[in-house]
Amino acid sequence: MVPPLTLLVKRKLTKAVWWRRLILLYNWLRKDIREAEPYSQLARIYDFVMRHVDYERWADYLQRIFAKLDFSPGMILDIGCGTGNLMAALMRKGYSVCGFDISLAMVAIARQKLEMKNIPLWRGDMRHLAVRSGLQCVICLYDSINYLLQLEEVAETIRQVYQVVEQNGVFIFDICTERNSMENFANYFEQEKQGDLSYMRRSHYDRKARIQYTEFDISFKKEKVTFHEVHRQRIYPTEEILALIEQSPWNLLYAFSNFSFEPANKKSNRIHFVLQKLRP
User: pTM of the full predicted structure?
Assistant: First the structure.
């Protein structure tokens, strides 16, 4: 076995390689580490970690898109609903919502949060929709699509949603771009503690593979163990997503940049795609 410290002293390492090797060294030195599936433990602190997110702004943006389309969404299905924060914000605006997430732990938190609202929530996979047809609006936001690591999985999700949306129904989803990864999450680190919980978050971007890696080390004082989660997101070129939509039966209405109504461009960190199911 190569002594871990030598991972860092070899010459001519790129920043990305040096960072990955530093993480390996750090992991080698830790004790009482338990590997965990993505979101299985993060769900417990997700709202704390993401407390900076303005979900009212997200809901307001959706409302403005609906107004621009002169569209009344009826029931909104949120696929990849997480802990239900966006659903709650939409409800406060008077919308009817339901949702699912692939993480049972995240759904459990959402149920606790929305239990008095009688909101349909379940564990599900966006690649295999188990819902009845006739929906008017489906959303998939906060780069949930980026968690699909194969382009065919994205294509299948787009096809699946088309099958359950009624005529004139709308599908709105977003992606994070490579610009976002390079500017905000290339060799990113943060560490926080509150009460009995603490976490460390490390991110790096593999530009060749177009994979954004985010690792969490999550500790709860009473449990005397550190949970380690590795999250992977594929950062798709905008052109690939546009090509998928072009090959699908959907009509692409808009590709918006950064919570605006400006067209997506090279400076976009996040792109919202607005699709509608229209008769041929």
Answer: 0.88
